[in-house]
Structure formats: C-alpha cells, structure tokens
Amino acid sequence: MKNLFSIGEVARYQKISKQTLIFYDKIGLFCPVYVDPDNGYRYYNASQLDELDTILIMKKIGFSLNDIREHMQNYNIDSSLAAFRQQMEVIDQKIDELRLIRSRVAQRCAQMEQAKKYLDETGTGVTVEQLEEQYILVREIGEPYTLRETSVATKQCFAEAFEKQLPIFFECGVIVPLSKIREGKFTEASHAFLLTEKTEQAEEIRCLPAGRIAGTFHRGDYASIGSSYRRILDYCDANSLEIISDSYEFCINDYITSHDEDEYITRILFYIR
After folding, report:
1. From CA 45, how far away is CA 33, in angstroms rounded?
2. Which CATH architecture has domain 98-271?
3. How far apart are CA 190 and CA 175, in angstroms?
4. What is the pLDDT of residues 197-250, one digit of tens each?
5. SS3 breakdown of the chain: % helix, strand, coil, rounded to 5?
6. CA–CA gap between residue 87 and residue 21 (Å, rounded)
7. Could you read off the pLDDT of 22-46 as tens digits, one per residue?
8. Is 32 helix (H, G, I), strand (E, B) or coil?
C-alpha cells in the first residue's frame, strides 16, 4: 500500500523475522498501523520504523519485552535516563557474575591440565602434601548409598547453589566414610559436595582445614575406584601414616567434561599424621 511498509519489508530492513513482528503484535509491543481486513496482511508507517529501532536497541541492552512495552507507553528523556541508568546497574552485576564464572572455568581448566600432566609424568602414585583451607557445600546422601542417591544429592547441591547464587567452582565430589572404605565399600559415600568459597549464604557450608594429606588420582570409571583406594591405603600403612579423616573425592574430569568414562579423573585424599 502507498506510503506503508509490508511486514516482509520491515523484516528485511531490520533483519528480523516476520514471526518476530507477528509475536510483537500479539503481545501489544509493536502493532501495525493497518491490517488488511481481506487477507490479514500487516502494514507499518515510516515513523514506526524508528519505534522498532528503539525496541530492538533496548532489547539488545538487556531490557525485557515487558519492560520495553511499559516504558514505551509514555516515555521522555527523563524516564529514559532513569531506565538506562538502572539498566547499567544490571549490566554491571552481570559483568561481575561473568567474571566470577570465568575465573571458575579457568580454575577447572587448570585442574584438568594439572591432573593430565601428573598422570602422564608419574602415573597413579601417591603423594603427601599440604592442603590449603577450602570450603564445600555438602548434601547428605540417603540410603542405600548407591550411585543413584549420590547423583541425586549432587544435583541438589547444584540446584541450591544456583538458586542462592553461591560462589561455587563447578567441581563436585563426595565424602566416603573411612569405615566403609575399610570394609571395601568404596562407592558408599555419605555426602556429596561442591567446592565453594566461605559464605554465609547457606547453612551447609563445611570447612576443610589446612592440613597434611595423602592423595592420589584415580583414572577410569567410578566402579573401579577400589584399586586406587587400596593403593593409597597400602602406601599409608607402608609409610606409617595414620589416616585421621574420611575420604574426600574431587571430580577433576567427569560427566561434565567428558563422555568417555575411561577419561574420568578423580582425586582422592585423606588427612594424615
């Protein structure tokens, strides 16, 4: 129609889909100036192209469609300045969150690289070292302590961490009681955990104090972890090292980072004296 733009023309000019324009019409955000009663074709005038520019720019900045619709009902320089300043605060929060996430991902990469290097150079030996203080978010595992219950508890840890926006490190693990290990029940963990920072945002945060530990890496599926436990137990017995804690298993390479269970890497450690 004369002096009007079809929905196809508007979509082509703005490089968006016609379906997007139809959706904007349905939610009352950007409605055509004229709809042909015979065929339902939508048409827009020139001034609406500027309005669509505003919508797309605000969407790019991060405003929700509801916020944009409410803002554009009656906006001026003052209301726009207030809205944009508020959105800058939202953007700053997202930047801080992304920086934190990036640091967690970088740490995970460093751990995997360290574990691969250790396995390549020394195989699966046992080391004695000093552990720095760490914090974990724990969740008790229910009976009968199978891998199913362990998986559920781990998922609950992640769900709580995401809900409360806890500063986790994207690394999970489990606590296996020493008594179970002595009985050969190597996979009957009592608690699942996520590595995190010290925080008051959750009650289930436990401190792993700095201390002397004996550790080893297990490579392979979880069902075969008993061989690595026997190795570290034999090492402690042979070197007169007293184990004074339950086992802490840290998943270095697991289902999050590999589909092949043969590539799984688990770090096992005990506090010793």
Report:
1. 7
2. Alpha-Beta Barrel (3.20)
3. 6
4. 999 888 899 999 999 999 999 989 999 999 999 999 999 999 999 999 999 999
5. 45, 25, 30
6. 24
7. 999 999 999 999 999 999 999 999 9
8. coil
Question: Count of CB atoms within 10 A of residue 68's CB?
Answer: 21
Cα gap 128→216, rounded to integer Å: 9
3-state secondary structure of 76: coil
Q: Count CB-CB contacts under 10 A for residue 44.
A: 21
Sequence-distant (6+) residues with CB within 8 A of 134 are 195, 207, 208
Q: Which residues share a beta bridge with 35?
A: 42
Tell me which of 1.10.1660.10, 3.40.50.300, 3.50.30.40, 3.40.50.1980 is the CATH number of domain 5-75: 1.10.1660.10
**Token pair listed for 51:** 């309005």
